[in-house]
Amino acid sequence: MRIVKYFFVGGAATAVDFGIFALFAGYLDYPWFIVSICSMIAGTLTNYFLSIRFVFKSGSKHSKHLEVMGVFIVSGLGILANQCILYIAIELVGLGLILSKCIATGIVFFWNYLGRSKLIFSK
Length: 123
What we know:
By secondary structure, this protein is an all-alpha fold. The chain has one domain (2-121). It contains 4 helices and no strands. The chain has helices at 2-27, 32-54, 64-93, 97-121. Helix 1 runs antiparallel to helix 4 (97-121). It starts with a helix and ends with a helix. The mean pLDDT is 88.
């Protein structure tokens, strides 16, 4: 049941991430590399606050300080993976920005869920 809740929380966070990415990289033509990092940080913050509200029990495994640090470490690795996937899809394969973002987000979603559920929140 938790992964279903996380799917909806992830959907909201993805909407924030995609919205920022599509507006600034797709519509306003800002550099996708920088926009992607900023949009994922905004999505990560959204995901964290919604996750501790609806999906995971905050403070169940680690102190709040370590929990937040863990979320950003897991997310940082997710951002790194996202950037690599985007680079390959956009620069090497020649896919469009939005399709590339969909592929990267789909892959990184599972990393973020597993990292958060196994390393940060669950006992």
